[in-house]
Design goal:
about 375 residues; alpha+beta; Rossmann fold; D-amino Acid Aminotransferase, Chain A, domain 1; 3 domains
Length: about 375
């Protein structure tokens, strides 16, 4: 019988999507195949403290305020778990010296499944930690994660790959705060209202606003500026009479040979698919598969794979599109999400379920892809000897 892989599911974190992460992690922990995997929950508080075992469970249950917090130099805070001097959990370290010092050989992890949406989890930062530890992990690497988080850099990669994107302007928070009139002129010279104003580095539609005119533009820029130093302003896609663009999504799975799911559509209960529409209200309706022609479906699925490759992604990504509601029905690539929401009712798992991959099997496949990618990396030489 093959040895069970020990999988660490990391969740929580310091981003504005902390609560979304808890929902995704709870769903994964419930569904993961325990016959194949030994599972270790690892929580990170909003303050950046690492929690293990029962303390991580407390965080999931909403008891984070009373949970003991594990930190470097304070190994007794959580019995049975210790930290290296650098603050990296020894669970991640394959170093014999570290193991001898901490007696945690039987607790080493084989794979990390990060369920950390947004900043400090989806942006390449924690992926760098896993790379330093030499451990397999689910999802994209440092470069792909960073590119997939930064909407400005992402759009530049899409443009380089000749993928169709909407007109946009990138603005620094400093530009807006020091010369607001000039900033507005720059936006209005390039784009027509309505426009969408977004923080460049954030997910789950946090900080995004729709501005119909100059009066709404200022508050929208202020809102986005709370979350990032770089702001992306996009021209809205729509039809005559204010008809909204269609919001289409594709799930991509794989490493060097990625595959695309069926195409789904989100019909927002609000004016656009913002944070509230995604997670709080019940008015948004998913349509899977989306009602498209065979040619449109083929085009969108091919574009999703091209976008995945353009950003050098791995493991999983949800790729989002905008489609003109009438006329030429032109399709624009909107963005990639390298660690999308992962509850059983989230779009990424639902798209794969509609394609023939069940939720539990999807989790297993992602872990297998993480191991596959780590083996590929181990073929690399890092010195001339």
């Amino acid at each position: 019988m093959a040895k069970k892989l020990r999988v660490g599911v990391v969740f929580g974190g310091r981003s504005g999507e902390h609560e979304v992460s808890l929902l995704s992690a709870a769903s994964i922990l419930k569904a993961i195949d325990r016959k194949k995997f030994d599972v270790v929950p690892i929580g990170i508080t909003k303050e950046g403290r690492w929690l293990t075992a029962g303390e991580a469970d407390n965080l999931l249950a909403g008891n984070g305020e009373t949970a003991k917090q594990l930190r470097a130099g304070d190994p007794h805070a959580t019995p049975g778990a210790k930290m290296l001097n650098q603050g990296v959990p020894t669970l991640l370290s394959p170093e014999p010296a570290a193991l001898a010092a901490t007696d945690t050989k039987n607790q080493l992890l084989d794979v990390i499944f990060p369920v950390l949406h947004g900043t400090f989890g989806e942006d390449g930062t924690i992926q760098g930690l896993f790379e330093l530890a030499g451990i397999a992990y689910v999802g994209s690497g440092v470069l792909g994660s960073s590119a997939g988080m930064d909407k400005d850099v992402m759009k530049k990669l899409f443009a380089q790959a000749r993928l169709p994107i909407v007109k946009h302007v990138t603005l620094l928070r400093h530009e807006w705060e020091t010369a607001p009139r000039k900033a507005v002129q720059k936006i209005e010279a390039a784009l027509k209202y309505p426009v969408f104003v977004k923080p460049a580095n954030l997910g789950s539609s946090v900080g995004i606003s729709k501005a119909h005119d100059r009066k709404e533009l200022g508050p929208a820029l202020d809102e986005a500026a709370k979350y990032d130093r770089k702001l992306v302003i996009e021209q809205g896609v729509g039809g005559k009479g204010g008809v909204k663009a269609r919001e289409l999504e594709v799930a991509v799975l794989g490493n060097d040979d990625p595959k695309a799911s069926v195409v789904g559509e989100i019909i927002p209960g609000k004016e656009f698919y913002d944070y509230e529409a995604k997670y709080l209200s019940e008015g948004s309706v998913p349509v899977i598969p989306a009602k498209l022609t065979a040619a449109e479906t083929k085009q969108i699925r091919a574009m999703a794979v091209e976008a995945f490759r353009a950003c050098d992604l791995a493991g999983l990504a949800r790729v989002d599109f905008l489609m003109e509601p009438d006329g030429k029905r032109r399709i624009y690539l909107n963005e990639v999400n390298t660690l999308p929401g992962f509850t059983q009712i989230s779009m990424y798992p639902k798209l794969w379920e509609a394609t023939g991959v069940k939720y539990r099997d999807l989790i297993t496949r992602l872990i297998e892809l993480a191991v596959e990618r780590q083996k590929e990396k181990e073929r690399n030489s890092y010195s001339r000897e």
